[in-house]
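Sample pair:
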Amino acid sequence: MSEPMPIKTQVDLAKAEMSLAEAGPGGICEDCGHFASRHLQATRIGGMGCDFPRPEDNPCDCEGMKWQGQRVDMIRVLDLATRMGR
């Protein structure tokens, strides 16, 4: 069983997810430079990375959407954006 995330980290993550929900699908990943919408699509098909179209032998090696220094959960970001009416 993994240790729980420290409270400050949880707060920073929640702030980053809210900020990205406000920024919308055009937010840029700090790891790979691709749009948030590409990371959401990868999450929907069961992945964690980015589905930016690239040659099969050179896929994007991003490990998931990074925003404000936090690796955000795109499903939570989408839920927040939906609740905000975006």
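The chain has a mean pLDDT of 85.
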